[in-house]
TrEMBL record, chains A, B, C, D:
Pfam families hit by this protein: Aldolase_II
Identification of the protein by name: L-ribulose-5-phosphate 4-epimerase
Cleaved signal peptide residues: none
Job description of the protein: Involved in the degradation of L-arabinose. Catalyzes the interconversion of L-ribulose 5-phosphate (LRu5P) and D-xylulose 5-phosphate (D-Xu5P) via a retroaldol/aldol mechanism (carbon-carbon bond cleavage analogous to a class II aldolase reaction).
Keyword Transferase: no
Protein family: Belongs to the aldolase class II family. AraD/FucA subfamily.
Catalysis performed (reactions): L-ribulose 5-phosphate = D-xylulose 5-phosphate
Keywords annotated in UniProt: Arabinose catabolism, Carbohydrate metabolism, Isomerase, Metal-binding, Zinc
Required co-factors: Zn(2+)
UniProt-recorded Gene Ontology molecular function terms: aldehyde-lyase activity; L-ribulose-phosphate 4-epimerase activity; metal ion binding
Any one GO cellular component localisation term in the record: cytosol
Limits of the Class II aldolase/adducin N-terminal domain: 7-195
């Protein structure tokens, strides 16, 4: 069942330790088959070096397990909400990667200080509020998802494929699991350079809007000219 | 004698350089056989790449060497006190891992800034005072152990399997040597992210208590639902 | 066509990930054949582990593609301006290497705090202004090149083979692609140590001019005595 | 000539990149045969991955080359002064290792904040003044050596086998090249943790003298009990 998608998402999960984004089992990637309305996700708490493609768990968009011998990632209800609210995404990543998580813990959004950031994320990467007591105690992971999708009712989830959850860590997404991992790697690098940049100059200002526009649209949309075209 | 435990603790010791927690010989893992009242520990000052399972030294809980051609780790009297006072632990780790030691040198406890911390350590990781002149000059390593066990008379050593000794470094423990090493790796990661988090936001506050509760109890105790169950 | 130069510049490009200077495709090296007036450069957006020597794109100094199945790096117009204005260079590197880019984002030039810096770069590594709206919107990459070459009308590009572009990142150059990469590695190390040095001592002053002179001229010019001579 | 010493010092030099202490050729190890009054040292500017044991250059204590096809390290006159003034050392290391060099550039001595430091270095690692204009212009490398040996007329070079030269970098020494490299690795680790410690607590004080004494004498001198004895 969904053998190809399982393999793709297995490989995307294995990229998390390869790029240094996870310690132990602290991360997960999922990917969706939009036609069937099913997604596959890493099982909860299984070490990366024991993981196999067939271990990926198949879920539906009500959060029911459709197939799999393992429990799905405990963050699965968050993934469900994102897939339901963001119709054009095909993959989601959650990690506790060190620099992005440090920003999330600090409660600050990551300002756009340069072109590395602007090439991928349009504007500052938002840090959302911590859930309140009721939201935490009842359906914590689902409420995390609702908090994120609520924010993106007013914002473009395609121009900003990343978010920080306060006191927790980052989520990223993309057209498939591979792109979602790619964005997680970029976010970590951007988070690192923004922190160092502020230390080097405590008065630093975000990059001018026209530079942010230039770099973002150099890689995205109608007028894009970076890379080898379609 | 205790061949299986020696092998297990040998492997746990070898995980210290694998996870980047030690330089040269600056670390040690021990593990106990509660039925026999004996524990095995790394020999003192032997390089990791020369270590063999049979080099592990067997000790009793009075601190006497029962078997082994080498001297045990110089920190052995600290391990003895912890095994005596914490009846449910099976393994202990001491390292000079870089970030945890930097916090220990700074004399500050590590606040709980997020869920990575809360998943493993309930509340701030305590930094205990430096020993005084008398305690240092007479039975230094034993007194280090007594300082730790004294603190945990009023605190739960199972909900906080880590401590920092001021001007020195961290100790961690767990149900066996493997879990104690696991906790040492987590502590290092948590120490790193807490330091960076404070640099990104000098006014940062600890995570709300309800979030700390949620994450700790998601993984521990009766209602735990992380991972694949028992 | 230019098979030897392609191979040399291919190898220089492959040194960027080897030395940890690039994430994904964020960097490029070019090298010029001055007699033919042609240079070769990495194609745009092709991953390093798929790159082959024959993929290098051949360009002339008007910025026309002379040979190659791929589009050249989107930074090619910047390289063109540097080759035209700096007659004695043979290779150029652009990266988003983490520490140098953090300085570029901060908008600060890198002071010369010690002999590691002085051995390669004479004086502070300049951080140039951000381009203005008109310069960004029309011929952005070419204008980046003109901004750099304009600065070096009044400054010696051979004594300072590196520059930071504000909100963007570093460019370095040298007598060939290999030396340009060498300078990019040194710049990253110097940027790292300057940032740390300022954290250790917030009042630190640049190294005395006589020490800067000594180290620079120990390795460059008539009286050089470092290394094995010519 | 001195084939065994050449091999030993070759291996000690190869440990510098292995432990991450050098970029390119920025470091050198020497070792002395006290009976013959000759020492061997790395050649100047030869890459580590091309180095062979027979490339080591043999020097006498007047600074004359006795054997070798290459020029010796440009820092050779500094080594000469240290061998002459410190009769019980057998090896010397100079690097531009990142954290120790950052302290040297900052002009600050490294305070003893904990037992990792105290196990190897008794008291703060001194940062000596920058040479003045005359000292730099005439016999720079020799004057660097004299500045160091001058400091140790009043201080114990065996209890402090390391020094920082302002705006330059560290030198370490030991009973042979291997121990000198060991001390260079420790210095880098200690420098890193001291910088981080100060960031975590801006008001941190050095470790109490009695703790420094305890750890230093646990490993050195008559009453030492760390390791496996003689």
């Amino acid at each position: 069942m969904l053998a190809e998608l399982k393999k793709e998402i297995y490989l995307a999960n294995m990229d998390l330790p390869k790029y240094g984004l996870v310690t132990f089992t602290w991360g997960n990637v999922s990917g969706i088959d939009r036609e069937k309305g099913l997604f596959v996700i890493k099982p909860s708490g299984v070490p990366y070096d024991e993981l196999k493609p067939e271990d990926m768990v198949v879920m539906d968009l009500e959060g029911n397990k459709v197939e799999g011998k393992y429990n799905p990632s405990s963050d699965t209800p968050t993934h469900v909400e994102l897939y339901k609210a963001f119709p054009e995404i095909g993959g989601i990543v959650h990690t506790h990667s060190s620099w992005a998580t440090s920003w999330a813990q600090s409660g600050r959004s990551i300002p756009c200080y340069g072109t590395t950031h602007a090439d991928y994320f349009y504007g500052e990467v938002p840090c959302l509020r911590c859930l309140n007591k009721d939201e935490i105690e009842d359906a914590y992971e689902k409420n995390t998802g609702l908090l994120i999708t609520d924010y993106f009712k007013e914002n473009d989830y395609k121009a900003m494929p990343a978010v920080l959850c306060k006191n927790h860590g980052p989520f990223t997404w993309g057209k498939d699991g591979h792109e979602a991992v790619h964005n997680a790697v970029v976010l970590e690098e951007v988070a690192k350079m923004a922190a160092r940049c502020e230390r080097i100059n405590g008065q630093v200002e975000p990059a001018p809007q026209e530079l942010q526009d230039k770099h973002y649209y150099r890689k995205h949309g109608e007028g894009a000219y970076y890379g080898q075209g379609k």
